[in-house]
Design goal:
There is one protein chain. With 110 residues, the chain is mostly helical. The chain is built from six helices and no strands. The chain has one domain. It has helices at residues 5-10, 17-32, 36-50, 59-75, 81-98, 104-108. Helix 3 (36-50) crosses helix 5 (81-98). Residues 3-108 form the Maestro/Maestro-like HEAT-repeats domain. It holds the Pfam family HEAT_MROH2B_C.
């Protein structure tokens, strides 16, 4: 599965909403079944890929990407927290803006 990970993360940039949704669901399921050490390493890469999805035209993609980001944050281990801190600082403003999203489920997921 680790071999497919870069390709799946790249599909998050796809223009097709269905493709992005399937990739997000796959990544969520994959992260849930990984050991914490593996998930922590992937979390750093994945967090960067999720940020552009917070502004996606699809409310479902926005909601799922924000929810997955929240889950990813929980998997980061101590030694990776410093690296993740910079990403989180960059994400806080877009997340704050999303708290006022017109779609209640997107605003609520935070």
């Amino acid at each position: 599965m680790a071999v497919l990970l870069p390709d799946i993360m790249e599909t998050l940039q796809d223009v097709n909403t269905d493709v992005k949704m399937k990739a997000l669901v796959f990544l969520r399921n994959m992260m849930a079944h990984m050991k914490m050490e593996e998930a922590s390493l992937i979390a750093l890469q994945l967090a960067e890929k999720l940020l552009p999805l917070f502004d996606d035209e699809s409310s479902q993609v926005r909601e799922l990407s924000i929810s997955l980001f929240k889950d990813v944050m929980k998997t980061v281990r101590e030694r990776s927290k410093k690296k993740m801190k910079k990403t989180v600082q960059r994400v806080l403003l877009p997340l704050f803006i999303r708290m006022n999203d017109q779609i209640k489920s997107v605003a609520k997921v935070q």
